[in-house]
Specification:
The complex is a heterodimer.
Chain A lengths: L4 H16 L9 H25 L8 E9 L4 E7 L1 H20 L8 H20 L3 H10 L1 H11 L4 H34 L6 H5 L5 H18 L8 H8 L2 H26 L1 H27 L4 H22 L2 H32 L10 H4 L1 H15 L5 H16 L1 H26 L15 H19 L1 H28 L1 H12 L1
Antiparallel strand pairs in A: 1-2
Helix pairs in contact in A: 1-2, 1-4, 2-3, 2-4, 3-4, 3-11, 3-14, 3-20, 4-5, 4-6, 4-11, 5-7, 6-7, 7-9, 7-10, 9-11, 9-12, 10-13, 11-12, 11-13, 11-14, 12-13, 12-18, 13-14, 13-17, 13-18, 14-16, 14-17, 14-19, 14-20, 16-18, 16-19, 17-18, 17-19, 19-20
Chain B lengths: L8 H18 L9 H19 L4 E3 L3 E3 L1 H28 L3 H20 L3 H19 L6 H32 L4 H10 L6 H17 L8 H8 L2 H26 L4 H24 L4 H22 L2 H28 L15 H4 L1 H15 L5 H15 L3 H27 L14 H19 L2 H11 L4
Antiparallel strand pairs in B: 1-2
Helix pairs in contact in B: 1-2, 1-4, 2-3, 2-4, 3-4, 3-10, 3-13, 3-18, 3-19, 4-5, 4-10, 5-6, 5-10, 6-8, 6-9, 7-10, 9-10, 9-12, 10-12, 10-13, 11-12, 11-17, 12-13, 12-16, 12-17, 13-15, 13-16, 13-18, 13-19, 15-17, 16-17, 16-18
Classes of the chains: A mainly alpha, B mainly alpha.
């Protein structure tokens, strides 16, 4: 039996969190707790990197697959594996978790042990979501992930943290319970077709689902994922959650959690219900475009930096959904690429905002000004990440947005045209914020701000390096995902083609019954 | 000859322990401490062993008590409920100065009644068992004689309960009038013979029986007594009756409706549908506005009764297994929650408002963590047992075509999460009040019970396959 690397990835953070219980949660052990937690998360990151190194990027299939019976009565299995789409998201999770732990070094002093445990448990659940090949298992991780995030916002957040935490949890849950019913419906359908229950994704891909059920199931799945993304108009939980979450929470939320929505669309909703996906794609595309423009316009008028970045996420994730809805190679590749980009650049922006608010204890843009004079290095990092987020060529954001627009244009030029204005708008609000914070006369309160600390260098350098690498060598990242995306698109084309040929018998049966 | 008695051994063990407890009480000097609780646990363990030996035997006694696997599975749940309740009771009994012998004897008699109810295959015997357990529980509810709230609760519970018992008895009488028997198998046969055109009398009888059961499982609109009774009783008693009574009543409910009255499914299905929907909705919606944690959990247990009704209605192979699995999970989780509430109460302060839990995490991280775990399990979060149990019910409902009921179920469970979260918000995210809760010291037996419940809740959530198989297999024996 090969080494169960994926199970290791899930089990390691959990084991680490439990190991932290051995350390006493008091002031003396604080740094020991932090170091152990950071070490564990770094080990996890190394394992994700090893995973990438061993990944066969010419293959479209799921790799490192592990299967064990879990609840045999319902055909529920512990089935996990990665393909090109999930691989990099797992690496991203592994990359961002140590950053999240490290960025709260100075800002979290309350219940440090519990904080570190929460972050590690959250990491395990997030990796679980990305590797699940069994719908039930996926749902378990999907739901389990809510609890640590809820605690993270609710305990270590800012003033309105309780409201934001409950809103986050109830919104996400309300969307996902209907998905649970759709999952159960799928398993029942499988039982009717073959005689036994199965939640195995690959088995369900092959299931022929009647059109009317496809529409309902697709809606249930799409609602769950649209709330998570968040797609306009389901986005209202996001600004609250982002603003009230501690920096670590914001980084993980923006970097990984939002990706689960788009990942769910491409992994589950589209391929399971291809006919419905094709039918609903224009609506998704429309909402995505509205979200791109709306998010950008609302971001422009935010006085609070964190809120601005939060709305910019709505806008950026709109691009991802647009690329997915285009359902062609460029669009989907761009979308997956943009998922990674957004994780890195928005994660970076939240880090910067966190550093500023650690220094000044405010996130209001109007409180800052002229930082260039006192903290030139921080401003330089801020600039690179801002430009990456805008999509300047040579940095990561450009590649993703370009591919998405290409894909969208091939599919529906109107959407591409409107979406392109989002690119311009994002330049407007980001640069305007950057200008107000960093240029202009220096105010009294900002005069004594320290520049980057060594710890902050360690946080920002990998993020910036990765933005540049992803901007200059996109093929490094596009190559492993390409075969899987092609297989997925081919699979969808095939099943919609099959169903397009089949309406005759489906349409005839009622009339045959009438005769 | 003794073979014919084997089916009643489990309840005989419990009854013997109860009688021993009563006798011991008679010889107890006023302030003397006697290990009556442990005595009860010994009796229950005896019952557990005999239940284990009876497994797969299908023993019958007097043609009225059947120890089939279904009854035995419920018996196991009840024995566990009894043992854990006794374990959680010890600090409360001590603190409140409750009469040791009476308290434990009543609890054991109630357990014996519950076990009898789970195994009875005759309507009259079901009634008898129902009365045995109800009378004991009425008294337990009001056992804090100096408390006005407790006395009021017991009185209310008793009056309404007596009323419901009368309904039930009427139902039995009419059923006998129509079918000529009180034996469930014979009733089933008689009903099957005339299921095409059931007489109005039969429908009336069925309705009466339904009301009786609905009262005992506190289904809406027969739930009015629940919040008061749950609030007035000492917490371990509340835990005991919110799980044991419900489990026993659902066992009999299942036997009567899914076996004897199964041919009339067309007549009762719609009613159960409506009652299940109303129970889930009222339980959760009213639960949202409660400020007392006991009342909140009372409404939560009403809502859980609704999910159980969905499983009962789904009534297919999955649904029947789902009832048992859900009962087991719900019983353990709820017991844990009420056990913890019992530990947190103190003589000076009731500590039963949700706001009393502010900052509990700071003072008692382990208690807070366990409470959070029980509440999240009740709310249906993985990786806890409550999630799997709810999922089991919903897949049964979807498979049986009750999609709308499943939709109501999942949506109400989202609403219910809101009030479970309120407690968690208090414990973890609100600073402690000026006089935070201080739990003096937790007796070893109660701590052990907490650990056991927590382990079972996790076990049922992570590795549910084995218990699911048992549940499915045991329900297969009666239908």
């Amino acid at each position: 039996m090969p080494f169960p690397i994926l199970t290791t990835l899930i089990a390691l953070p959990v084991a680490g969190a439990l190991a932290l219980l051995a350390l006493k949660d008091d002031h003396e052990h604080e740094s020991a707790i932090r170091n152990v937690a950071l070490a564990i998360s770094l080990v996890v990151f190394v394992v994700t990197a090893l995973l990438w190194a061993q990944f066969d990027s010419t293959s479209a299939d799921f790799q490192f697959v592990e299967r064990h019976a879990w609840i045999p009565a319902f055909g529920i299995t512990y089935a996990i594996g990665v393909d090109g789409i999930s691989l990099l998201l797992i690496v991203l999770t592994g990359f961002l978790t140590p950053i999240a732990l490290l960025c709260s070094w100075e800002s979290v002093h309350k219940k440090t042990r519990a904080f570190c445990m929460t972050v590690l448990l959250l990491e395990a659940a997030m990796i679980g979501v990305f590797v699940s090949l069994d719908l039930f298992l996926f749902y378990v991780f999907w739901d389990a992930m809510l609890i640590p995030m809820y605690f993270l916002i609710g305990i270590w957040g800012y003033d309105r943290r309780i409201y934001a935490a409950i809103k986050f949890l109830l919104y996400t849950m309300a969307g996902s319970v209907l998905m649970l019913l759709a999952i159960l419906g799928l398993a029942t359908l499988h039982a009717q077709a073959t005689g036994n229950y199965s939640f195995d994704l690959l088995a369900l891909y092959d299931l022929t689902i009647p059109s009317h059920l496809q529409y309902w199931y697709f809606l249930a799945f799409a609602l769950a994922f649209a709330i998570k993304v968040p797609l306009f108009p389901f986005h209202t939980w996001l600004p609250d959650a982002h603003v009230e979450a501690p920096t670590a929470g914001s980084v993980i939320l923006a970097g990984v959690l939002l990706k689960m929505g788009t990942y769910g669309l491409i992994r589950f909703a589209f391929p399971l219900f291809p006919e419905a996906a094709v039918a609903f794609a224009p609506y998704l595309g429309f909402l995505a475009v509205v979200g791109i423009i709306y998010g950008a316009l609302v971001a422009m008028v935010q006085p609070d930096m964190k809120k601005l970045v939060a709305y910019s996420s709505v806008s950026h994730l709109g691009f991802v959904v647009l690329g997915l809805a285009a359902m062609n190679t460029y669009g989907v590749q761009g979308a997956v690429y943009q998922m990674l980009n957004h994780g890195i650049s928005t994660g970076g922006l939240f880090l910067i905002v966190g550093m500023l608010s650690d220094r000044r204890h405010t996130r209001l843009i109007s409180e800052y000004g002229g930082l260039k004079h006192v903290t030139p290095r921080l401003v330089a990092a801020f600039l690179i990440i801002t430009l990456a987020s805008i999509g300047l060529p040579g940095l990561n954001g450009f590649v993703g947005e370009f591919l998405i627009l290409l894909g969208a244009f091939a599919w529906e030029p109107k959407f591409a045209v409107f979406a392109a204005t989002g690119v311009i708008l994002s330049a407007t609000y980001m640069l305007w914020m950057f200008q107000r914070v960093n240029y202009g006369p220096i105010t009294e309160k900002n005069k004594a701000l320290p520049d980057l600390q060594p710890r902050e260098w360690v946080l920002l350098v990998p993020v910036i390096a990765l933005s540049i690498v992803m901007g200059v060598f996109p093929n490094l990242f596009l190559k492993p995902m390409a075969p899987s995306i092609e297989r997925l698109l081919g699979q969808m084309r095939q099943s919609t083609a099959v169903q397009a040929q089949q309406p005759a018998p489906g349409g005839q049966s009622p009339s045959a019954g009438g005769n | 000859m003794f073979n014919s008695l084997s089916a009643i051994v489990p309840m005989a063990c419990v009854t013997a322990a109860a009688i021993a407890a009563m006798t011991a009480e008679a010889f107890r000097a006023p302030r003397e401490r006697m290990p009556i609780g442990p005595l009860g646990i010994v009796g229950l363990i005896g019952a557990a062993i005999s239940t284990f030996l009876l497994w797969n035997r299908n023993a019958t006694s007097f043609d009225m008590v059947v120890a089939d696997n279904f009854g035995l599975f419920v018996t196991w749940i009840l024995i566990l409920v009894g043992i854990l309740s006794i374990a959680f009771s010890s600090p409360v009994v001590e603190r409140e100065g409750l009469p040791l012998g009476e308290y434990y004897a009543l609890m054991l008699f109630a357990t014996a009644g519950m076990i009898l109810m789970a195994m009875a295959s005759d309507l009259l015997l079901i009634f008898l068992a129902l009365e045995v357990l109800s009378l004991a529980v009425y008294v337990l509810t009001g056992i804090r004689r100096d408390s006005a709230v407790a006395t009021e609760a017991a009185m209310k519970y008793f009056l309404l309960g007596a009323f419901a018992s009368a309904f039930f008895l009427y139902g039995i009488a009419f059923t006998w009038g129509v079918t000529g028997s009180t034996n469930l198998t014979k009733i089933g046969a008689a009903i099957a013979a005339q299921s095409m055109a059931p007489s109005p009398m039969l429908l009336f009888a069925m309705g009466m029986l339904f009301v009786g059961f609905a009262f005992k499982v506190s289904a809406v609109p027969f739930h009015m007594w629940t919040p008061d009774a749950y609030e007035g009783a000492p917490p371990p008693v509340t835990g005991f009756m919110s799980t044991g009574v419900k489990a026993a009543a659902f066992a009999a409910f299942t036997r009567v409706f899914l076996a004897a009255f199964e041919p009339l499914r067309g007549e009762w299905a719609d009613v159960v549908w409506a009652v299940a929907a109303a129970t889930m909705i009222v339980g959760t919606v009213v639960g949202v506005s409660q400020s007392s944690i006991k009342r909140m959990l009372a409404y939560s247990s009403i809502a859980h009764g609704g999910y159980l009704l969905v499983a009962l209605l789904a009534g297919n192979d999955l649904g029947k297994g789902a009832i048992l699995f859900y009962l087991a999970t719900y019983a353990i989780t709820n017991l844990g929650a009420f056990g913890l509430i019992g530990l947190i109460e103190s003589r000076e302060r009731a500590n039963d408002q949700i706001s009393d839990y502010a900052g509990l995490w700071q003072q008692h991280p382990w208690l807070a963590a366990l409470m959070a775990m029980f509440l999240l399990s009740l709310g249906g979060f993985p990786p806890f047992g409550g999630f799997i149990a709810k999922y089991y019910v919903f897949i049964a409902a979807v498979q049986a075509g009750y999609t709308w009921l499943a939709i109501i179920g999942v949506l109400t469970s989202v609403v219910s999460v809101f009030f479970y979260l309120r407690v968690i918000v208090m414990m973890y995210m609100t600073p402690a009040s000026a006089t935070p809760i201080r739990v003096p010291s937790i007796p070893a037996i109660a701590a052990a019970a907490l650990v056991v419940t927590a382990v079972i809740v996790l076990y049922l959530g992570v590795l549910p396959a084995q218990v699911m198989d048992w549940a499915a297999a045991s329900i297969g024996t009666i239908f």
